[in-house]
Each structure stands twice: as C-alpha cells, then as structure tokens.
Protein: Glutaredoxin domain-containing protein
Organism: Littorina saxatilis
Amino acid sequence: MRATRLFTALTRHTLEQTTRTCFAVDRNRFKFNMSNVASLIDGKIKSKKVMVFSKTYCPFCTKAKKVFDQLLKDGTLSTEDYEVMEIENDPNCEAMQSELEKLTGGRSVPRVFINQKFIGGGDEVVSAHKSGKLVKML
Ligand SMILES: N[C@@H](CCC(=O)N[C@@H](CS)C(=O)NCC(=O)O)C(=O)O
C-alpha cells in the first residue's frame, strides 16, 4: 500500500516536471521563431524602396507585380530598389503573415511597402498607379 502511494506520487511528480519542461521549451521556441520572423520582415521592409510580400498563385499579387514590372521597364524603378518575396512555400509563411498582420492590420497578400510605409494590396497598387500617386511615392 505504501509502495503504491510512493509510486503514484513519483509518477505524478515526473509527469508534472515533464509537462512543465515541454511547455517551457515550446514557449521559447515560439518566441524565438516569432522574433526571427519579425526581424526578417522588418529587415526586408527597411532594405528596399519597394518591398512586396507575395504568393505566386495569387491574382492580386500578379496585378501588383505587373505594375512594378512596367515601372522597371520604363526606368521609373530600379531592380536594386525592388524585391518580391514569394512566401507560400516558406515554413514560416503563417508566422510571416501574422507579423504582417501586426504591422498592417491585414494578412492577405500582396502586402506592399514603399519607403517603409504600407500602401496596400494589389487593388491599391493598381489604383495608385492609375492616379499617378504611385510614381510620386518612388
Ligand atoms: N483586396 C486585396 C485582396 C487580396 C487577397 O484576397 N489575397 C488572397 C490571395 S489571392 C489572400 O491573401 N488570401 C489569404 C491568404 O493567402 O492567406 C488586394 O487587392 O490585395
């Protein structure tokens, strides 16, 4: 009887320790990933005049990229000032979209930044281009 009680107490103790350790590891891993993703996104936004977070199959991304391709062609934008990051196959895709949501209020793609300012998605890029506002931002 005493042995059984001792065994139960020991088992409970081990289980509690294991659970505590696992949660601590998971929490740290989550924090580590999120801060890495946050600095990656921040670095990208800061490093380019035009930074586009995109998915290859997304039609709104395609129309935004078409506009920038045109600006590259006519010399309004230079290749070193422009980057598109296709995120759908990145293992951190979800975390990146969550970080973008934190920064911009939305997680859809494309998320387009010009001079570190979020200007919108595909619809906004097209309409800013049509009105002439886009070129003025560059
Ligand atoms: N009005 C937005 C629509 C963007 C949109 O709906 N994008 C879709 C992909 S085509 C999206 O991000 N869906 C959620 C997701 O992929 O997580 C724009 O013009 O950019």
